[in-house]
Amino acid sequence: QVQLVESGGGLVQPGGSLRLSCAASGSIARLNIMGWYRQAPGKQRELVAFITSAGLTHYADSVKGRFTASRDNAENTMYLRMNSLKPEDTAVYYCKTGVAPYDYWGQGTQVTVSS
After folding, report:
1. Whole-angstrom Cα distance, residue 107 to residue 110?
2. φ, ψ for residue 87 (rounded to 5)?
3. Is 27:76 a contact under the CB 8 Å cutoff?
4. Which of 35, 61, 78, 91 is deepest in the core (most CB within 10 A)?
């Protein structure tokens, strides 16, 4: 079983930056893919980015060039650096991973982009 805890959300002005963290309860080195998702009010949860154990990354078109996913296996933590934030980035952000056949989610952290 894997427990995930997100942190780092908050209120930021448009154009600002935040760094989200996702701390895992155990070693993440064995976790192939870790991902960030978000869910805005009234919308479906969507993939924001994922990172593999080899460090390969994938981003949604809406965040490419602005967000950067990274992971520190020694710290058992995944990060999401978010720059040039826009009001449409406002959502609850979740981290997710999986150990077949199970998926594990964190509880989410609120990001609000507003002036």
Report:
1. 10
2. -55, -35
3. yes
4. 78
